[in-house]
Amino acid sequence: MAKPPIIAACRRSFYNATSFLEELYASDGADDALIASCIADEAGLLFDEIAKDVHVVAPTIPNSVALRRIRHAVVVTCDHTTLIYIAPTLQEIAVLKRHLPQSQDIAARLRITTPAHLLEFLRLHYERALAENAVDIVETTSRGFSARIVVTGSQGILLGLSSASILFGLALAPSCLWFIFHMLFSVFFSGCILLRLLAMRATTRRETRVLPTVPARELPVYSVMIALYKEADVVPQLVRAMTELNWPRSKLEVTFLCEADDFATIKAFEDQKLPHGFMVIPVPGIGPRTKPKALNYGLQMARGEFVVVYDAEDRPDPDQLLEAWQRFSVGGGNLGCLQAPLVVANAHEGWLARLFAFEYAVHFFGLLPWLARNGLVLPLGGSSNHFRRDCLEGVGGWDPYNMTEDAELGTRLARRGFIVEMLSLPTIEDAPTVTDVWLRQRTRWLKGWMQTWLFEMRHPRQFLGDLGFRRFLVYHMLIAGLIVSSLLYPLMLVFIAYSGVNLVLENAAGADRGILVYDCMNIAMGYLSFHALGKRSSVGKKIKGSILRVIPFYWMLVSVAAWRAVKQLCTQPFLWEKTPHRPAAVRESLDPSR
């Protein structure tokens, strides 16, 4: 190697409080094999890559271990020779040089290899065990907190009794049953409106935080994990976005988790010149083929003290990791997660993308900040979730059987006593512009909400005890309100039209008139509260084009997705309908206030 990159690596090791070897491996254009060969020469040992046909004696992989922290492997070759492969640190090189002359038998068995090769060897050797752990980790660490079982036996009995009661009610007093159920379910619709009004009342102008200069030596290792499937088109954009993150290269690892049979996406990464710390990990096809399973698999190979999850099309603010780390630093050990707001960039690409972008403004700049400020359960978005690693592992990672693993994880964090707060620096995303794509994505989300509500309510008394009455009540207003209002919306419109005709013909009963007024108020306030909350945010104000007039049609699509989710929950509960992405047409401003 030339002297300048070696001198630069030495300087960075002082500035970043890291090892000279770590900085050397992280140098642009560094040859890992060359560096490891030099280490072997210095220690008086041999450099070698581990053969694939050896039997591994050690280490044995316990649950939730980070493979990147393992720096050795003891193997037995086909001729029954025991070899010890190591990727030593700088301090360990000095120990080897001092003690190996007195231990010639051990020296003859020692081999130097690169950290990256050692990691990949151990991953391949323990691939099945790692994948099975990724599938079972939630059930192992959080008994009962899994959507693997959609409905328990007791819930099935309760559902059967309820169905029988409804049939008896229809036979004996159909009008009374209709009135009771209509008013009961309409309350959930009103609950969603009330939450929006409360959030709107408390909404303040969201300002981007000014980040102080932080010495690189104070920063920890940060792990970025991105699960991809059939995303070859966005790979160049994604790699560019990750390289723009403002974090020391030797302390940043970016893991791209691709399904093992997704050859096109893996080939797209091979065509890129990935910096040090950027690694593609094939996820084996064991268990459900879902994003949360891939994240659990990757977490076992991450070494960061903090972990963030992004999606394939994400372009996070370069300083987002810095803001998250500073918030974690002052937030205390019970601050388990930080959610960055998501901003849709392509709102100009049709009415569907425009309403999606406006919905994100309502959610990430209106509702979620209000929930976070009041210490309520915050359902995470599927991207830009920053975690303390020990907190994430403590609650069991992600549920591989849940279609909205993010929102469910936010609930589980709250039940374990962890705090979830919001960041100010956003992540740019793109909205679906095709109805079919949007419908599949929204079906998956709503199915996941239904899964989450069903298994959280397996033990309602315990759930109430974990959250407390206020958070328990708001949780049901939010989750059950979202599900019920999405399902009932078209039925309410049909009832309003039917009752309106009857009123014109003077055939409506007094009770029906009261319900009609209540439904009309619900619908009107639903539209207005949604529109007003979105317009309160700076992002919602910037979205050009008609919003209020299109909300009725957009909500009708949401209802179609909700009924589709009910069908899938009964027939295909673990079907993950993939949302395809494409590269962004323009580079966007990351400041939502501009």
Automatic annotation (TrEMBL):
GO molecular function: glycosyltransferase activity
Residue ranges crossing the lipid bilayer per the database entry: 149-173, 179-199, 472-495, 515-534, 546-566
Keywords: Glycosyltransferase, Membrane, Transferase, Transmembrane, Transmembrane helix
InterPro entries tied to this protein: Glycosyltr_2/OpgH_subfam, Nucleotide-diphossugar_trans
Keyword Transferase: yes
Pfam family, one: Glyco_tranf_2_3
Record flagged with keyword Transmembrane helix: yes
Topology of the protein relative to the lipid bilayer: Multi-pass membrane protein
Gene Ontology cellular-component terms listed: membrane
Domain of life of the organism encoding this protein: Bacteria
Gene3D superfamilies: Spore Coat Polysaccharide Biosynthesis Protein SpsA, Chain A
Protein name listed in UniProt: Cellulose synthase/poly-beta-1,6-N-acetylglucosamine synthase-like glycosyltransferase
Lineage: Bacteria, Pseudomonadati, Pseudomonadota, Alphaproteobacteria, Hyphomicrobiales
